[in-house]
Amino acid sequence: MVKLATAAYPMGVLESWADYEAKISGWVAEAAGQGAELLLFPEYGAMELATLDGPEVAGDLERSLHAVSDRVAAADALHARLAAAHDVYICAASAPIFAGGARPVNRARLFAPSGEMAHQDKQIMTRFERAPWGVAAGDPLCLIETDLGRIGILICYDSEFPLLGRALSEADILLVPSCTEALAGYWRVRIGAMARALESQCVVAMASTVGACPWSEAVDTNTGAGGVFGPPDLGFPPTGVLAEGALNVPGWTYAEVPEGAVETVRRAGVVANRAHWVEQPQGAGAVTKRDLRTHSP
């Protein structure tokens, strides 16, 4: 049995680094206290770090990107300590990071109980990330071997693209940290997450930012909820929904996944979407056109 915790996370104004450390430590302690072994924070949840440099910096789009990037190393050290102290895996809230390029990448970091870290950068940017943010695509997709199984990460918009999900089809668990402004955005990501669970016959966990952040141009409005999804098939709920949080209510959403559930559904499920993927016609040449118009041109 693997127990997952996905966050509906409210960002806020931080008065000091101690405030941030206490906040993250409290969230991790709460989930670990409920027996969670894998904790997922949302996309861009790290933007609250910009408030440590004051309201002018937090409210300026470009300056806030740099302010957050400058504090990621300290945030990573904190998450590594907490993962080791509580013997859990933690996917920290993603952050804009200037990783040697002229523009930042959007990077999620997964910490093991050993304190070791692996990272995943977002692949495809939304309109707002392209302009005015200027966020760049980063390192390619990776599959992370853990004691809980193989884990992949698709950051928000990435979860809406089937070929990215297919590239991670060996994953037992996909993590989808998200940050969406409107209800439609939340549902786009949730539908993408559920589709990836169906296609790859795996577990997909989604985390969201929630609440208003008037101090930020970047993440001023947030709508979402935590959720954990699987294929609607053998060993999983008929809806595919293992757990779903209440919309816009801060806190953790928990789900337990029976040991071997993914392996079993892939081997003996009613359908075999993952194995049958290769049977799809490849390319436009596989499409035959028919014309049923009354008056053809």
From TrEMBL:
It comes from the Bacteria. Residues 2-259 form the CN hydrolase domain. It holds the Pfam family CN_hydrolase. InterPro entries: C-N_Hydrolase, C-N_Hydrolase_sf. SUPFAM superfamilies: Carbon-nitrogen hydrolase. CDD domains: nitrilase_Rim1_like (cd07574). This is Predicted amidohydrolase. It comes from Marinovum algicola. The lineage of its organism: Bacteria, Pseudomonadati, Pseudomonadota, Alphaproteobacteria, Rhodobacterales.
